[in-house]
Write a structure and sequence with these properties.
Layout lengths: L1 E4 L2 E11 L5 E11 L6 H33 L6 H11 L5 E2 L6 E2 L21 H4 L2 H29 L12 H23 L1 H5 L3 H12 L1 H26 L9 H12 L5 H7 L4
Antiparallel strand pairs: 1-2, 2-3, 4-5
Length: about 280
C-alpha cells in the first residue's frame, strides 16, 4: 500500500510467515521515501549541495590517489622501517646511513643521528605504509561516498521516469524504498567513519595524544577478543536455534536468534517461551 503527497511517499509492507509448527508470525514495515525533485526550491538546493559535495569528494579522491602512488613508488630500500627489520632478521650489521647528513650510526644504540639529530621514521614509507589504519578508513570513506552518490543519482533517474501526476497504473515503489534504505544505511556507516577520523586529529593535541596512542596499541588485542567473543556468541545462537527454534518465534532462524540473544544480554527475554518449549534445557 502506498500513500503519497509529493514529494514524500509512505510505503507500507505486510508479510506473514507460516512456521512448520503452524504458528503465523506477522511482519510489517513502514518506510517513508522522500522523492528527489527539482521543482521546489528545497530540491534545487539539495541537488546543488550534492554536486558541490561530489566535487569535494573527487578532489579528496585525487589527493588519495597521489598519496597512494607516492607510497607504492618508494622502494623498500628507502624505507627506514623495512631496512631496520631486514638488519634484525638477517643480522647484516647494526649501522645505517642517515638520510639527512649521510653519516653512518647505530640506530639500536642512538635514537637519532648524533650529527644532525635526525629522528628515525616510525612508520613505513613504502607500500606497506599505505595500508595503515587511517589510510584504510579514508579509502573506505571515499568508496562509500561514491556508492551513495551513485545510488542517489540512480534514484533521481528512476523517479524522473515515473509520471506521478499522470500515471494511471500501479507504481512499484518498493525498489525505490529499498534503494533509499540502502543509502541511509551507508550514510550512517559513513558518518561513523567520518567521526572516527577525528581521533586521528585529536592525537595531534598534546593532552590527548597519550590516550589516542593507547587506543591504537589496544586495537589488536581487542580485535582478537571480539573474534573469540563472536565465535562463542555464534555457538549460543545456533544452540538456541536448534533447541527452541521450532516453538519460540524469536529463535526461528539464525538472524532472529542472534538478535534475541543480544536483547537477552541487555536483560530482556521471554523466559516463559523458553520454558514452555523445552523445560529441561
Amino acid at each position: 500500500m502506498v500513500w503519497f503527497m509529493l514529494p514524500s511517499v509512505l510505503y507500507s509492507r505486510f508479510i506473514f510467515e507460516f512456521l512448520p509448527t503452524g504458528q503465523v508470525v506477522p511482519y510489517h514495515s513502514l518506510k517513508p521515501l522522500l522523492l528527489p525533485d527539482l521543482e521546489s526550491f528545497r530540491g534545487v538546493v539539495v541537488f546543488l549541495s550534492e554536486l558541490l559535495l561530489v566535487m569535494f569528494i573527487l578532489y579528496y579522491a585525487v589527493k588519495e590517489v597521489v598519496k597512494a602512488r607516492a607510497f607504492f613508488a618508494t622502494n623498500w630500500r628507502h624505507c627506514q622501517v623495512c631496512v631496520l627489520k631486514k638488519i634484525k632478521a638477517e643480522h647484516l650489521g647494526e649501522t645505517i646511513v642517515c638520510p639527512n647528513c649521510q653519516r653512518p650510526y647505530n640506530p639500536f644504540q642512538m635514537p637519532c643521528c648524533p650529527d644532525c639529530y635526525y629522528d628515525l621514521e616510525s612508520s613505513h614509507k613504502c607500500w606497506k605504509g599505505y595500508f595503515s589504519l587511517w589510510n584504510l578508513i579514508d579509502l573506505s570513506n571515499i568508496i562509500i561516498f561514491f556508492v551513495v552518490f551513485g545510488l542517489r543519482f540512480k534514484l533521481r533517474g528512476d523517479v524522473d521516469k515515473i509520471q506521478l501526476r499522470t500515471e494511471t497504473q500501479f507504481i512499484q515503489f518498493y525498489p525505490l524504498a529499498w534503494q533509499f534504505g540502502i543509502v541511509n544505511c551507508l550514510n550512517s556507516a559513513n558518518v561513523m567513519l567520518s567521526f572516527f577520523k577525528t581521533i586521528k586529529y585529536l592525537g595531534k593535541v598534546r593532552a590527548l595524544s597519550v590516550l589516542v596512542k593507547t587506543l591504537i596499541i589496544a586495537l589488536s588485542p581487542v580485535f582478537w577478543f571480539l573474534i573469540f567473543f563472536g565465535l562463542v556468541y555464534m555457538g549460543f545462537a545456533i544452540t538456541f536455534l536448534l533447541a527452541f527454534g521450532k516453538d519460540a518465534g524469536q529463535y526461528r532462524n539464525i538472524g532472529s536468534s542472534y538478535m534475541s540473544l543480544f536483547v537477552m544480554i541487555l536483560g530482556d527475554f521471554d523466559y516463559g517461551a523458553i520454558e514452555t518449549s523445552n523445560y529441561i534445557l
